[in-house]
């Protein structure tokens, strides 16, 4: 059995294999509510044979959306829309479905990538005033966000709690808290964005405080038999920014609080970042975190080939592989990886007849006949 196709657990959640579909924003919701695009998109991915599908970054309040088209879980309409989509997807797939809960912080009120991704200033159509740990804009010339005061911190924390309760009602099987890619919780961690002089800024211990409070609050209300884990940016790729030592400290603190896994990415907090791109460029960060904690570590970042993914796991650098752009480009990536590595994968009965002649045992339990 290739390591990539061995079963694994995220806390109490059992997965058929170690291929995870990473959260990928679609910027296609209406006031946070999904529509037909999400039904098509998620239904497609749920037939891929991966071990877990993680829904895109889902805003816990309207002001926490990255763009006006972001998915949200802050209203009854959002919850009802997601229920419709999930009911349809689950009717044809047994793949577990998790959700990434997040808040954009100072990167909120942006245009969709295909519209250029620039900030929409308050007062412009579709725009609103963003909030952040400190009154420091993401980039020079952008509108300055409001620094969250005690009341604002409590509001955001409670928004995560309310969204977690909605996720539980929807039957979401795991929650990933988004503390990466320059969004609000990452902003608290990074000295580049957090200039506070109170209990939430300055020292590493203080900068960890609010993200840990959010984790504790979500973990307290989400059913104990379902896992909660965190996605982190291991480094900012900017001198003087968030670094790997801080990430290790954060991961250890999360593990002590019952975190089920650490999903290791990088960057996003500053336009000054200088990322050294290359195949598997973030895997060394995952490897370092894995050496320091006893919970599963998920690697992501330009992992595109089956043997590359298998080697990462076989060499003990991570416990699972997360795919984003690679699985958008090839939604049957797990099928092709299983064929290449000599493993088996689940496929919908309607597609059993597509099993290639040279891979007669590729699809689990496949059988068919005709007259």
Write up what this structure looks like.
- Helix 2 (76-90) links the parallel strand 4 and strand 5 (97-102).
- The longest helix has 20 residues, at 150-169.
- The protein has ten helices and twelve strands.
- 31% of the residues lie in helices and 13% in strands.
- The relative contact order is 0.14.
- It has 371 residues and is an alpha/beta fold.
- The chain has helices at residues 36-45, 76-90, 150-169, 184-189, 204-221, 244-256, 283-292, 306-314, 325-329, 333-341; strands at 8-10, 13-15, 19-21, 52-59, 97-102, 131-132, 146-147, 175-179, 228-233, 262-265, 297-300, 320-323.
- Helix 1 packs parallel to helix 2 (76-90) and helix 6 crosses helix 7.
- The mean pLDDT is 97.
- The strands form three sheets. An eight-stranded parallel beta barrel has the order 3-4-5-8-9-10-11-12, surrounded by five helices. Strands 1-2 form a two-stranded antiparallel ribbon.
């Amino acid at each position: 059995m290739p390591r990539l196709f061995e079963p694994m657990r995220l806390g109490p959640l059992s997965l058929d294999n170690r291929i995870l579909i990473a959260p990928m924003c679609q910027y296609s919701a209406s006031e946070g509510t999904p529509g037909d695009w999400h039904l098509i998109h998620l239904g497609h991915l749920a037939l891929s044979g991966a071990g877990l599908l993680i829904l895109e970054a889902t805003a816990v309040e309207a002001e926490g959306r990255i763009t006006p088209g972001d998915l949200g879980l802050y209203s009854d309409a959002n919850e009802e829309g997601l229920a419709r989509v999930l009911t349809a997807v689950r009717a044809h797939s047994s793949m577990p479905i998790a959700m990434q809960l997040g808040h954009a912080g100072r990167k909120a009120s942006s245009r969709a990538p295909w519209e250029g991704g620039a900030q929409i200033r308050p007062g412009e159509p579709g725009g609103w005033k963003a909030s952040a740990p400190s009154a420091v804009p993401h980039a020079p010339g952008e509108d300055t966000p409001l620094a969250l005061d005690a009341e604002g911190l409590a509001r955001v924390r409670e928004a995560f709690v309310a969204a977690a309760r909605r996720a539980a009602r929807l039957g979401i099987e795991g929650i990933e808290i988004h503390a990466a890619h320059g969004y609000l919780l990452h902003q608290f961690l990074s000295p580049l964005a957090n200039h506070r002089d109170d209990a939430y800024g300055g020292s590493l211990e203080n900068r960890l405080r609010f993200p840990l409070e959010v984790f504790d609050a979500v973990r307290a209300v989400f059913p104990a038999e379902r896992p909660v884990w965190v996605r982190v940016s291991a480094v900012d790729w900017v001198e003087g920014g968030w670094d790997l030592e801080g990430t290790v400290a954060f991961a250890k603190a999360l593990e002590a609080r019952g975190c089920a896994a650490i999903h290791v990415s990088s960057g996003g907090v500053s336009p000054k970042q200088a990322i050294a791109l290359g195949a598997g460029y973030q895997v060394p960060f995952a490897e370092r975190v894995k050496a320091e904690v006893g919970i599963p570590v998920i690697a992501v970042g330009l992992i595109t080939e089956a043997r590359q993914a298998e080697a990462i796991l076989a060499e003990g650098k991570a416990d699972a592989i997360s795919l984003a752009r690679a699985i958008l480009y090839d939604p049957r990536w797990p099928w092709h990886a299983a064929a290449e590595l000599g493993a088996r994968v689940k496929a919908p009965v309607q597609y059993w007849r597509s099993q290639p002649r040279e891979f007669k045992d590729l699809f689990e339990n496949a059988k068919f006949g005709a007259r």
